[in-house]
Amino acid sequence: MDFSFSYYIGLSGIMVFTISGALAALEHKDHHHDLFSVFFTGFITAIGGGTLRDITLGNYPVSWVRDENILWAIFIGFLLVILFPGILTKLRDELFLFDTLGIGIYTVIGTRIALDHGVNFFASALLGMISAIFGGVIRDTLMNEVPFIFRKEIYATACLVGSVLYIILNAFDVNANWNLVISATVVVGIRVVAVRYNLGLPKIKLFD
Amino acid sequence: MDFSFSYYIGLSGIMVFTISGALAALEHKDHHHDLFSVFFTGFITAIGGGTLRDITLGNYPVSWVRDENILWAIFIGFLLVILFPGILTKLRDELFLFDTLGIGIYTVIGTRIALDHGVNFFASALLGMISAIFGGVIRDTLMNEVPFIFRKEIYATACLVGSVLYIILNAFDVNANWNLVISATVVVGIRVVAVRYNLGLPKIKLFD
Amino acid sequence: MDFSFSYYIGLSGIMVFTISGALAALEHKDHHHDLFSVFFTGFITAIGGGTLRDITLGNYPVSWVRDENILWAIFIGFLLVILFPGILTKLRDELFLFDTLGIGIYTVIGTRIALDHGVNFFASALLGMISAIFGGVIRDTLMNEVPFIFRKEIYATACLVGSVLYIILNAFDVNANWNLVISATVVVGIRVVAVRYNLGLPKIKLFD
Question: Where does the chain cross the membrane (chains A, B, C) (predicted)?
Answer without folding.
Answer: 6-26, 33-50, 70-88, 95-115, 121-142, 154-172, 178-199
